[in-house]
Structures
1.
Amino acid sequence: MVDLNRRGLVLAAGGAMAAAGIGASSWAAPVAAPSGRKLGYAIVGLGSYGLGVIIPQFKHCQNSRLVALVSGDPAKAQRVAAEYGVPERGIYNYQNYDGIRDNPDIDIVYVCLPVSMHAEYTIRAAKAGKHVLCEKPMAPSSADCEAMIAACKQAGKKLMIGYRCHFEPYNLEAIRRARVGEIGKLRYFRSEHGFTANNPSAWRLKKAMSGGGSLMDIGIYALNAARYMTGEEPNAVYATERTDRSDPRFREVEDMIEFELEFPSGVLGSCMSMYSANQNHILLMGDKGRIELEPGTGYRGNRLWVGNGRENEITPPPGPGANQWAGQLDHMAQCVLQDRQPIVPGEEGLRDIRIIEAVYQSAREKRRIALRA
Amino acid sequence: MVDLNRRGLVLAAGGAMAAAGIGASSWAAPVAAPSGRKLGYAIVGLGSYGLGVIIPQFKHCQNSRLVALVSGDPAKAQRVAAEYGVPERGIYNYQNYDGIRDNPDIDIVYVCLPVSMHAEYTIRAAKAGKHVLCEKPMAPSSADCEAMIAACKQAGKKLMIGYRCHFEPYNLEAIRRARVGEIGKLRYFRSEHGFTANNPSAWRLKKAMSGGGSLMDIGIYALNAARYMTGEEPNAVYATERTDRSDPRFREVEDMIEFELEFPSGVLGSCMSMYSANQNHILLMGDKGRIELEPGTGYRGNRLWVGNGRENEITPPPGPGANQWAGQLDHMAQCVLQDRQPIVPGEEGLRDIRIIEAVYQSAREKRRIALRA
C-alpha cells in the first residue's frame, strides 16, 4: 500500500521530489549533474538501440564516456570503436565478455541486448565487479529480475533500468504538476502506446528472445507512465488480448492488449498496447482538470497540455540532461559517484514485470487478478 | 452472432446501407425525406431536452409538426403552446394524458421524460393508439424495455428510440467509411464520453428517476457508438466503477465507469463514461488506418478524421435532415407514413440496456460477464 499522506506531507514540506526511495510510489526527480569526473561505460549489444540511439549520446554527457563495446560482430565493433574513439582494449565479444573485470576503464555496463539476454549479461557484469544499466523491459520473468537484483546486491553494485522517460522534460513536468495538485485529486489515467512492427524477423517478435509481445516492448511505457503519473502501485489488473495469429508477425507474441489497473486511492488506469499501429498518448484526469501528453514518450516531439482540453500547452523547463538519454546515462554515473540509489533501480523494473505477468495471466484466464501489496 | 459475410455481401452488392433490419448488427442509414404530408407530434415533458432542444426543431422538418404538449405545468404549457402555435386542444397534463387517443392530430408521441417514466408513458401512448419515439436510455431495466416493445407491438404501433447520432452526418460518414473498408479489417474501438454534472438536484442524479448514473445518460453514447461503428454486438463485458460517494452529486448514481466490450469478430471495445469531466471522443482502428471523431456526438461542432492520425479531416455530406434532430423526427414520421421499421427501434434500445445491465453486474461482481447471443 502506498502511504499517500506521508508522501503528500513530504512534498508539501520540502517540495522535494528527489527524496530517497524507489519506484512510482516514491517517485523522485533526477538531480542536476555535477560536472567533473566521467565514468566509463561499456555498451553491450550494437543493435539499433545501443548503436543507433545510445552511443551517439555520450557526446552530450557530463559524467559518462564510452570506453568499451561488446558485440558478436568483430568488424562492426572495430568500425564503431574507430568512429567513437574506443581503444582496442575496450572491444569485447560474448565469449571474452567476462574479461571486462580486468578493464579498469569500465565502471558501468549498459545492457542493450534482446530481452532474453538481459539477466545473463547483467549477472555476469555484476560478477565482473561492474555496475549495470539494463534496458527495459528488465527481463522475461520476475524470477529473472529477482536474480539480477540479487546478483548486483551480492556484488555490491548498482542496478538501474533504462526507463528514459524518467529523464524526459515533458514527463517530468507532467509528473511535477500532478504531484503539486494542479489538476486536483487524481481520478483516471489512460494511455495508448503502439507502433507498427513491420519486420516479421525482428527479435521483438520471437518470444524466446523478447519474452512477450507489444506489452513487453511498448505497452510497458503505458504501464510505467500509469505508475509514475499517479505515484501509486496498482492492486489489481484485468486484461484482454487480441492478436491475429495468422499474421506472420504475430505467430509467437501478442499484438494488441488492453489492460486496466486499479490503484489503492481509487484512481482507475486504462491502457492499450499494440504492435499494429502507431499510438502514443497519456492522459491523467483529476477532479480539477487534466494533464495530457501526445506524443508522450517519443524520442522527440513530445507535447504537453495542462488544464481542461488542449488550450494550455506547456513548454517544460530543461530536463536533467541535454536530452533524456544523456540524463539517464549521467544519472547512473552520478549515482555511482555519489553512492546513491538510481531513481529507476532494478526494483522498478521488477515491479513492471510482476504487473505484466499479472496482465498476461488475466488475459489468459479472463479474470481480474489481484496483486500483492 | 453477427453474420459478417452476409452483411459484407449485401454492402458489396448494392452499396445499400438502408437495408431492412435493426440494431448495430444490421446498421442502416436513414433514407432521404419525401416531402409532403406532415405527421403530428405530441411532446411529453417540457424539460431542457424536450423544450430546449426538440421543440425548436420542427421548423426544420419536412414530415413532422408539433401538435400537442404534455406537461405538469399548465402555465408553461400555455406559454409554449402559444409560442409554437399548438392549439388549445393539444395541451395535456399527466392526468388527462390518455385523452390523446381522441386527438386525431397526434400521430406520434415523443417521450422526453426522466428515464423512470419512459415505460409508463410509452405504454400508455401505445394503448392510446399512438406511435412512440422515446428518448434514450430506453428505460431503467430490460424488463421495462421488453414491456414497451410488447405494448407497441400489441397496439400495432411503431416504437423508436431517440438515438440522434444515427441521423448525424459525421457519425453517418464515419460508419459508411468503416463499412466500405476504408480502414481495413476493424481491430479496436475506444470511446470516452463524459460531462460535468454540476447540479446535485438534477433528476439524472436521482437513481429512482434516472435508473443509473453516467453510463445510462452519457456512457450510452460510447456503447451505442461501439455497436454502430463496428456493426457488431458484444458477447462479453468487463467493467470497473469509480465513484466518490462523499460527493453530494454521486450519493445515488455512479460517476466514472470503464467498460470493455468483446466483439465476436475479435474487435475489442474500450469505453469510459463519467459525470465529472467533459470528454467526447470516438476512435475506431482498422488494420489499414483509423477513424476518429472528437467531439463525436456533440449537438454540434463534431469533427472527423480518417486515415492515420489527424492529417485528413473530413467534411461529410449532409445528413438526412437539416440537423440530427430534424432527421430523427422526420425518420419516425416517414416510417409511419411508409409502414417501415425505424432504424433505431425499441429493440435497439433494449440491446443497449441489456449490455448496460451486464456492465453494472460486472462492476459489482468484479468479473467478466458473457452476454447471450
2.
Amino acid sequence: MVTIKDIANKLGIAVSTVSKGLNNASDISEEMRQLVLDTAIEMGYTSKKMKDSGNRKVCILIENMDYENIDQFGYEIIVGFKLAAARRKWDVHVVPTNLNMQTEEKYDTYMLRNNFSGAFLLGFTLHDDWVKQLNKTNFPTVLLDNYIERNPHVGYVGTDNYEGIDLAVNHLCKLGHKKIAFLNGSKNSMVSEQRRQAFVNSMIKHGLVPEEELIQYGYYVPDCAKDHVPSFLKKGATAIMCASDLIATGVMTEVSKHGLKIPDDISIVGFDDLPIASQLSPALTTIRQDRSDLGKSAFLLLDGLVHGVSTSKLLLRAKLITRESSGSAKY
Amino acid sequence: MVTIKDIANKLGIAVSTVSKGLNNASDISEEMRQLVLDTAIEMGYTSKKMKDSGNRKVCILIENMDYENIDQFGYEIIVGFKLAAARRKWDVHVVPTNLNMQTEEKYDTYMLRNNFSGAFLLGFTLHDDWVKQLNKTNFPTVLLDNYIERNPHVGYVGTDNYEGIDLAVNHLCKLGHKKIAFLNGSKNSMVSEQRRQAFVNSMIKHGLVPEEELIQYGYYVPDCAKDHVPSFLKKGATAIMCASDLIATGVMTEVSKHGLKIPDDISIVGFDDLPIASQLSPALTTIRQDRSDLGKSAFLLLDGLVHGVSTSKLLLRAKLITRESSGSAKY
C-alpha cells in the first residue's frame, strides 16, 4: 500500500508538504499541489478516509441531466442510490458538474482531492473529458448509459434498450401498424445508437420494413419534434415511437397542429415513463425505465467495484406501460 | 395475496385437501396433488415459508456441469453464491438435476412443492424443458450464461464474452499472429454463438481476416480437438484460440502429436482459467472468468429479483492471464 512517505520519498520533499498537497492546504504553491496529486494518483495512493469502509464517501456527478424535481429523469435515480447507500452508511455527495470543472481538473485528481472512494456518473457522454479519462482510472466508477471498454474499475448500468424498443414495436405491430416512425434522441450517444439498432432489428423481426426516412435522430427535448414529424406524416407513418417521453410531448403537440387525433389517426409511444406520461392528454403509452431500481443497481455495482468485483454491465428490464396514446391502425 | 382458502374455493375442495396437496402428503391421489399444485401456480400462490425472509430457501440447480471438486468449473461459482447467501442467512440447496426430473415435473411445480423461493441454474441449455418454461415462471430465477427474453422474474449472469475474446485476439495480434484459428464450444449454445461473433468482430477490428475454415464449433471437451486441429494446421494457423481451457488441453495434445512446439511453432489461448491452466506444461495463457464473483453476482441478482428489482443481464469483466503458451508468431 502506497503511503504519504512513499510519495515524499519519490518527490524528494517533506511528508508535511505531501500532506498539505493532498489536503488542499493554502500555504503551498498550486504547482506543488498538482505535482503531489499527480504523483499520488500515478502511484495508486488512496487515503485512509477513502479506505475507511465505516463511512465511505462517494459522489454522484451530474452533467446535463435534470434531477432536482420529482418529475425529472434524474430524481428517482438519485433517491434509489441514496436509499441503498444509506443502509451501508455511505456518505453520498451530489455534485452538479460542468465543462469548466472537467477542463480545469482531471477526474482522478478531483476524486483524490475530495477523498471520494467512488463515483456514479449521470448524464455524461462519451465526449466529456472525464469520461475519456475513465479508460485509465483506478477509482471505482459507475456510469449510467455509457460503457467503457476493458477497465475493470468502471461499470455500466442502464435499461435494456433492445428489449424496451422491441416491446414497443411489438405492441404497435399487434395494433396493426406497419408504417412505424422512430424519432430518436441525440446522435453520438450510446443509448441512441442502441435504440436505433434495436428498432431496425425489431421491425425486421416483426416482418416490417424499417424505412430509412422514418428513422431520424433528434435531441432529448420536445422541440426536436417539429423538424421531423411533418415528414413522418407526409410519408404515411401511422405510429411514432419516441426515444423519450419529453420527445413524445413534442410529437403530440406537432401532430395536433396537423389536425390529427391521438390515437385515432396516429399512435404515439414514449420511453422512460416520467411522471408526466400519465398526466398527458391522452395519457402516454411508454416504455418504463425503473429509475429507482437504476439507482439501487448503480449502488450495488459500485459496492462491488469497491470490493474488487468487476461488473462490466448491469441492465434492468424495460416494461411496456399501455395507456391511451396508442390504438389500432386506421389503414 | 392468494391464500390456501382461495385455492380451495376455486377447486371446490376442502382447505385440508389443498394443504395436503401443497405439502406432499401421501393420503391424497397423485391427480389431486397435481391439480392443487397447478392451480396454486396459476393463481400465483406462494407459501409462508417462501415469503419468510428470515430463512429464505433457494436452490442451485445443476445440469451437465462438473462442480464437486475445486478444479472443476462449477465449484467456485457455488462457493461464491453460498458465501454471499450465508451473510443473508439464506438456506441454499445444491440439486443436481437430469432430463428425467425435467420431464416428470414442471419447473414451477418443482419449485412450489419444495418451498423454494428462487433458483440459480447452472449448465442448462436453451433446449432444456425447464429453461423453455422460464418465459412464464413467476419464480425468481437466475441463469448462468443463458438469457430469457421479457420475463421480469428471470435474469442472466455471465462473463462479458465479447470483451474476453477481444482481449485474446488483441494479445495474439500484438504477438504478430495473423492466421488465428478459433475452436469454439458446442453449437446451439448462447455463449458459443456470442464468442463466435466476438471473434469475427475482433479479427476485423484488428485488421485481420476471419477465415471461415479456421472458425469451427466443437464441444466443451478436450476430445473435440482432434476433429479440427489437423485442418487448422494444414491451413497455416499460427495460433489457436479455444473456447475453454479443457478444449485447450486437447488442442495442446493434438498439436504435440504433429511435432509442433508451444509456443515456438504455435500459440494456444484458453478460456476460463481453471486451476489446471497454470499447471499445464507449458502453462496456459487464458481468459479468466472470475467464478467466485459469478456466484456472488448471481446471488445479488437473485436477491434483487426476490425483491422486485428486474435485472435482465449482469456481465462480469473478463481478464487476460498471460502465461507460457502464447508467443511471437514465427512467420
